[in-house]
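Work through what follows:
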Amino acid sequence: MGSVNATTPPSTHRNIVPAFRTFAAITGSGFRRYSTYRQATVAGAFTNTVFGFLRTYVLLAVAAGTATGLAGGYDREQLATFVWAGQGLLAVVALWGSTELADRIRTGDVASDLLRPVHPVTMYLAADLGRAWHAVLTRFVPPVLTGLLFFDVYLPRQWFTGPLFVVSAALAVMLCFACRYLVNSVAYWLTDIRGPMLAWLVGSGVLGGLFFPLRFLPEQFMVALWVATPFPSMLQTPLDVLVERDPPALRCGIVALQAMWVMLLLACCAVVQRRAERRLVIQGG
């Protein structure tokens, strides 16, 4: 009896393995889908690189205008790394993602998603992870290499910074997906989501650390923004981890905060999806 209790029930094993294979298959299909957009990928990488030069020179000018040579606590090398890694992460986390889900809701094609054996949130998350992995190879690497070639950049000095940055970037991808899913889900209740989408585009860029490092803001406002909203966790957090802006304990803390936001917002996605399905049933859709 003791040996039976110590083993995993066969039914559990049979449930987990197919679920993992399905998730991996959807992730792979997301990767293959975006690998077909070759011209768009090249154009996007080129655009991000051009804006990388502009942003770098602007922030370096800001640092040069201070008495200490620091801007928001960043030195010149950290600012260069912040910009170029941020230009690469922009496509990976997809702050400005598509409105595919909203379009499928508007046309009624989302009904086919509800008939599939995979939960819609899980299905779209898996596909987005495949997209993000493709973006790492094609949209993250070129800007980072360009920054290494043309500027003096900050290279991490502690061994755990690299793994922590990878974890933080992965959490940022899932967090940004959850936010975009919620914005797109507004289409279940509104026929036109251009207003919420515009608010998301502006808010995520300004409050996420894309346009300027949030450390430039007054400290009290910055801390409140970081704790009370998920926006800094989508871009500012992984970049601060990479440039080692804070002590190790604080860096681990803000990554843990990222994980909390991911769990909370993915749970919100599931709740919103369940309510939306009830609404479709009431309408007879």
